[in-house]
């Protein structure tokens, strides 16, 4: 089996690369390294069956030979990154997704789109099931990402409807693990970084807003299972256990033995107040649910950050 992973040098993509190579597949990574790091995949460079193409998915790409599965993960993903690269984010969601879908059509490959819980925006329905259409401000600061992914979903399902391409859409909720960049602005790496340095932990708003966090190994398993089903409507993947941001900060502080205080900052515009996936569909279709608890997962990330510091 040959798999192409766009965005394979990023956080989630690079873990998928490792898993597919371990399972005996051949893997091609296409990544322009805008937010990824070569170091995430460098340990595979000498392995047979691995190829890295440093390229922007917005450019048309020719690849020789067959491909069985395309996992399209390329996209800046943290708010910090997509606000820094708004046009690149929209180009990748539109042109990049189009190019990857065309490649899937040419090769007769299955196609999986990594979409996001951000398509639900600041949700009025809680928890969020796939039937909910979302509450997104089309001209808000986060819209480059939210609307980009909504467009990418619409394009993907159009390829299924028009060409019967075997498409899969997953909506990933907050995922964390080793290889996240300490400075990527997402809450878990930020808190760990601050706690390990005993610096004040930045809490946006009152810290009462909630999130749910899925450990990378659970996410990889969910993505692998999703890539094998014949199902074309979106599938939520995430951990349904919900924490307030203050609870998360407390757990991180304890696990880091930190003396950090809290520094309260204004809530960013359109920041969702609640975020929790309804994963009934994934449970039923994929026989999947997360197994790794927050404390265990956080301990792994903290160990990894300590080695990097
Ligand atoms: P990441 O930034 O670590 O990885 C994204 C990768 O895509 C990077 O390696 C980057 O260089 C690459 N990339 C971006 N634009 C590209 C382009 N035009 N051409 C080629 N490569 C490009 O982010 P991640 O957390 O690993 O996210 C991976 C995917 O999962 C993204 O599509 C993201 O939207 C989705 N997602 C992630 C989360 C999460 O919690 N991590 C949540 C929801 C959705």
UniProtKB/TrEMBL annotation:
Swiss-Prot/TrEMBL keywords: Decarboxylase, Glycoprotein, Golgi apparatus, Lyase, Membrane, NAD, Signal-anchor, Transmembrane, Transmembrane helix
GO cellular component, one term: cytoplasm
Organism: candidate division WOR-3 bacterium 4484_100
NAD-dependent epimerase/dehydratase domain boundaries: 3-237
Cofactor(s) this protein cannot do without: NAD(+)
Pfam families assigned to the protein according to its UniProt record, in alphabetical order: Epimerase
Subcellular location(s) of the protein: Golgi apparatus membrane; Golgi apparatus, Golgi stack membrane
InterPro entries recorded: Epimerase_deHydtase, NAD(P)-bd_dom_sf, UXS-like
Coiled coil: none
Family matches, as PANTHER family: UDP-GLUCURONIC ACID DECARBOXYLASE 1 (PTHR43078:SF6), UDP-GLUCURONIC ACID DECARBOXYLASE-RELATED (PTHR43078)
Membrane-topology annotation of the record: Single-pass type II membrane protein
A GO term for molecular function: NAD+ binding
GO annotation terms (biological process): D-xylose metabolic process; UDP-D-xylose biosynthetic process
Principal subcellular localization: Golgi
Name by which UniProt lists this protein: NAD-dependent epimerase/dehydratase domain-containing protein
């Amino acid at each position: 089996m040959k798999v192409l992973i766009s965005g394979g040098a990023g956080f989630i993509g690079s873990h998928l690369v490792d898993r597919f190579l371990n399972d005996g597949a051949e893997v091609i990574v296409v990544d322009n390294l805008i937010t990824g790091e070569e170091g995430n995949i460098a340990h595979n460079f000498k392995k047979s069956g691995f190829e890295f193409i440093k390229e922007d998915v917005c450019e048309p790409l020719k690849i020789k030979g067959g491909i069985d599965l395309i996992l399209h993960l390329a996209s800046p993903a943290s708010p910090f990154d997509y606000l820094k690269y708004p046009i690149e984010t929209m180009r990748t969601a539109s042109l990049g997704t189009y190019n990857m879908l065309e490649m899937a059509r040419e090769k007769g490959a299955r196609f999986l789109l990594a979409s996001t819980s951000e398509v639900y925006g600041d949700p009025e329905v809680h928890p969020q099931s796939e039937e909910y259409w979302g509450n997104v401000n089309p001209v808000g600061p986060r819209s480059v990402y939210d609307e980009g992914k909504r467009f990418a979903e619409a394009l993907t399902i159009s390829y299924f409807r028009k060409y019967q391409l075997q498409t899969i859409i997953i909506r990933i909720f907050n995922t964390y693990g080793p290889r996240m960049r300490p400075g990527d602005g997402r809450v878990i790496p930020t808190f760990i970084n601050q706690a390990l340095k005993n610096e004040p932990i930045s809490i946006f708003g009152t810290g009462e807003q909630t999130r749910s966090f899925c450990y990378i190994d659970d996410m990889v398993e969910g993505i692998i299972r999703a890539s094998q089903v014949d199902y074309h409507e979106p599938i939520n993947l995430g951990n349904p256990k919900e924490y307030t941001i203050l609870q998360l900060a407390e757990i991180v502080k304890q696990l880091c033995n930190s003396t950090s205080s809290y520094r309260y900052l204004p809530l960013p515009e359109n920041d969702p107040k609640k975020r929790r996936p309804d994963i009934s569909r994934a449970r039923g279709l994929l026989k999947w649910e997360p197994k790794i608890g927050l404390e265990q997962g956080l301990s792994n990330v903290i160990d990894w950050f300590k080695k990097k510091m």
